[in-house]
Amino acid sequence: VLVPDGGGPIFEGLRVGIPSAWNAARIEFVEFGRIAKDGRIGLRNAGEATWSWVAADDPRLTQVRPEHVGAVFPEDEHAASVRALKAWAAERLRFQDWATAGFAAASDAWLERIWPEVDDAVLAGLAQASYYNAQGQRLPVLDRGALRVMRVADARRASVPVLPPTDAGWARFLDLAPASGLSFTEVAEAGRWWWDRSVPRTLLSSAAGEDNEAAA
């Protein structure tokens, strides 16, 4: 929970309706996402495709009052977000890096809702990336049940399932990594590229130690 000066408390998944700073008669619907260790929090306006990190002194946090909490978003908000994200993926991802989607700042509940509806559009956009951007891609996929790391275009040609950029996908990634045969660098790069998270330094060595103890 984040408690900014003069506002809050703010937490992941909170939805609010606050008066616009430019027009008090207009309500801005805002959803909050993940809270970072440095005190920032993810934020997305209703109907928008991407997320951004904002500081705790952002007016959209400091102005939140009890009457703003629990706002009912427009009925077509989810459909509008799906359309916006598909359009953004088609128009931008061939030129921009995956991190610009801001999914690392998104709430996990939002990712769980929207990913099944936009995964193909996002991956199609990434598959069209420039040669330079494609070289940095580290997409975690399941190849006959084993964890592999590929460029997006290669994964689509192979028709292998992709681990989702959700908390559940991250947990599965960490669970499969020790038996994958991948180096720590390969695992760490995939974790950073797809989830923008750091893999525990002892992930592979701890698993190897447990295997050795079991064998003994």
Descriptive overview:
This protein has eight helices and six strands. By secondary structure, it is an alpha+beta fold. The protein has a four-stranded antiparallel β-sheet, with no helix packed on it. Strands 5-6 form a two-stranded antiparallel ribbon. Helix 2 (77-92) runs parallel beside helix 3. The protein starts with 14 loop residues before the first strand and ends with a helix.
**SSE order in H/E notation?**
EEEEHHHHEEHHHH
Mean pLDDT: 90
Report the total helices.
8
Instruction: Give the helix level as a range of percent.
Output: 40-55%
Can you tag this structure with a few keywords?
alpha+beta; 6 strands; 216 residues; 8 helices; 15% strand; disordered C terminus
Layout of strands and helices, then pairs:
Blueprint: E1 15-19, E2 27-35, E3 41-45, E4 52-54, H1 59-62, H2 77-92, H3 108-127, H4 131-135, E5 139-143, E6 146-150, H5 152-158, H6 167-176, H7 184-195, H8 203-215
Antiparallel strand pairs: 1-2, 2-3, 3-4, 5-6
Helix pairs in contact: 2-3, 3-5
Question: Short summary of the structure?
Answer:
With 216 residues, this protein is an alpha+beta fold. It has helices spanning 59-62, 77-92, 108-127, 131-135, 152-158, 167-176, 184-195, 203-215, and strands spanning 15-19, 27-35, 41-45, 52-54, 139-143, 146-150.
